Amino acid sequence: MFIIYLIILFKLINGEISIRPPGIGKNNSIYILSLNSPLQLDCEVEYGDFDDIEDINALEWVRGKMKIGNNWLSIYTQPKIDEKRRWLRQSLYIPKITEQNSGEYKCLFFDDLQKTINLFILKNLEWKTKINKIGAQIGQPLTINCGAENIPDEAIQILDSKGRAIEEVLDEVLVTGAEITLTKIGKEHKGLKIRCVAVRPINLKNLGLSEDLDINSVDSVHTDELDLIIDVWIPPKFDDHFSSSNHRHYAIPGSKQLLRWTITESNPPVKIWTLNKDGEILIEKEKIKIIQNLNETTKPFFAVLIENVQDEDYGRYTLTAHNGILESHQTQTLVITR
């Protein structure tokens, strides 16, 4: 065992630890991160034949005096070995950065090779748009504010999902500072992704670096992103297929009559129906049955079945469909015939 250890030490003379992606500042050892963002750092060592090593966890991540395990929840490691390429990797994962993750970390190989990094956590920007899904009624203009508090407009970029300037991709779009306006949104804009990018300068001296890190360190910038999705609101649209010309139905007293309304299009989907007869809300009662379906996988419909038409049943039936944002209505008239 001692001989194997000496062999490993001899190989370590030419070994080197690298961490990817590299950081900034002195020795590329400083990482500036945003709250709630994910982090993956790959620590690799190359030195020769790994057949001498029985435990691939000989390469390890350490914080303070504690080794970071591979079964932790908020922070964990994952080893990988490639004997053909003669490298060993230990990846550090932090799925969601918190302020408690700031500080010094070391990647060690048999305590003989090591590389130290420092994580600094920035508070998230306060974006002026607080929601990720923004919309307007079809045919209307839509203004999107990509600004952030304490960030000048000239430090804001507005891009599409592929990183292209939005004004180069969309027609009829106006850019004013950190705002863009689509002069008339249509169905083609539904689901369109907008990336708001803020570039803020970082003075490393203000991070409270230790003296050894502060030497030769340079200022940097940090990029924050906000992803927005455009929604196009469409008022409920009624289908005329189930109603006759001018929405008039003729019924003989004592007969059975069905009045049906079907929605062919709505965004968001219809959520609420309201039925009025001659200006008063109509509810289900004896001889009148109300049937409704709000299933989003089929066309929503609302129907009134009158089992035995009487004089009081003739008149105007107005159904209002509301999708939570917009509403539409359609009137069908039941007319007496002899």
Automatic annotation (TrEMBL):
- Give the range the annotation lists for the signal sequence: 1-15
What InterPro entries does the annotation carry?
Answer: Ig-like_dom (IPR007110), Ig-like_dom_sf (IPR036179), Ig-like_fold (IPR013783), Ig_sub (IPR003599)
Q: What are the residue boundaries of the Ig-like domain, all occurrences included?
A: 22-118
Keyword Signal, does the record have it? yes
Q: Which domain of life is it from?
A: Eukaryota
The protein's UniProt keywords, in alphabetical order, are: Signal
- Output this protein's name: Ig-like domain-containing protein
